[in-house]
Amino acid sequence: MFTKQQGQDLSQYHEIISGLFKQPVSREEWNQYKLSEEDIAFFNEYGYLSNIKILEEWQVDALNEQLALITDPAHPANNLFYEFNSNESSDPNRILFHALGAWRVSEGFHDVLWNPAFLMPASQLLGKKAIRFWHDQLFCKPAQHGGVVAWHQDYSYWTRTIPMQHLTCWTGLDEATTENGCLYYVPKSHRWGLLEKPQLGGNMEGLLDYLTEDQKNDFKPIPIEMKKGYASFHDPLLVHGSYENKSDRSRRAFVLNVVADGTVSDSDQELLSGVPVVRKGHQLNGQFFPLLFDQKW
Predict the structure, then answer these.
(1) What is the dotted CATH code of the domain comprising 49-249+258-293?
(2) Tens digit of each residue's pLDDT, the chain (297 residues)
(3) Distance of alpha carbon 7 from the chain centroid
(4) CA distances from 28 to 25, 34, 82, 125, 201 (A)
(5) Is the pTM of this model over 0.70?
(6) What does 109-164 look like in DSSP terms, one character per residue?
(7) Distance from the Cα of residue 44 to its chain's centroid
(8) Where on the phi/psi map is residue 101: left (φ > 0), alpha (ψ -120 to 50), or beta?
(9) Coil, helix or strand for 51?
(10) Which of 124, 192, 200, 231 would give a disulfide with 171, using CB separation of 3.0 to 4.6 Å?
């Protein structure tokens, strides 16, 4: 039986270690999480697929309890985060908590990587390929003064890994609405190619300076409002962002970023802070990039 020690690095475990999720044991049990062909076609055309339920309310509650503990900089395992920003906003009057590496710190945020309701859709949207973990993120906007996440493409921060066969899954731990700073997507912008990389917590509209006139004409963001426990998947080149939280409710979320197995490093520098170098041309694998799903069904 798994027993967590204070400050223990949970990246050593590549399986479910808590009672938060149950792993399917048959094809029939896995199939209940499958997306439809219509869902996959929508994702391919528009670059995203939203309102996919991946957590029950009791699981959301459990994750929020753990979130409250690990967002404290004094947490005994805080050193295990790849990045930890109590406020990444460029506006001191607005707060954007952003951290990478929660899976190493918290049993719940470790085990969401192996949540079957996430794994099956992720594999389908990556072309039914085996999927490997890249990294996670926490994004929290407090009530009344939560900051923005500027318009960006995820892959613009990930060019140190190739080929581009990445996928992002954003999951709300609060109800996400236009009032509290939900995601916005620019449909079909995943066909625009790679754009400049802005500061995530900086000028919301900074990316627009790098768009062509045609792209500016097609820049028509839509809000992605979702209940807590629901997820949205998007292409690594889809332009997205989120506005301030001026409501009386928090907007907490976690993000799981995965790649198709076979993705390689394109750098001889660290891929993530504190992680041993994966030499250029070598595949992502090992302790920090575990294989999550490789069903042949």
Answers:
(1) 2.60.120.620
(2) 567 777 899 999 999 999 999 999 999 999 999 999 999 999 999 999 999 999 999 999 999 999 999 999 999 999 999 999 999 988 888 999 999 999 999 999 999 999 999 999 999 999 999 999 999 999 999 999 999 999 999 999 999 999 999 999 999 999 999 999 999 999 999 999 999 988 888 899 999 999 999 999 999 999 999 999 999 999 999 999 999 999 999 999 999 999 999 999 999 999 999 999 999 999 999 999 999 999 865
(3) 24
(4) 8, 10, 37, 19, 43
(5) yes
(6) HHHGGG-HHHHHHHHHHTTS--EEEEEEEEEEE-TTTB--EEEE-GGGG-TTEES-
(7) 19
(8) left
(9) strand
(10) 231
What whole-number distance in Å separates Cα of residue 52 and Cα of residue 231?
Answer: 5
Give the whole-angstrom CA distance, residue 250 versus residue 184.
Answer: 17
**What pairing do the DSSP bridges indicate for beta strands 251-260 and 230-234?**
unpaired
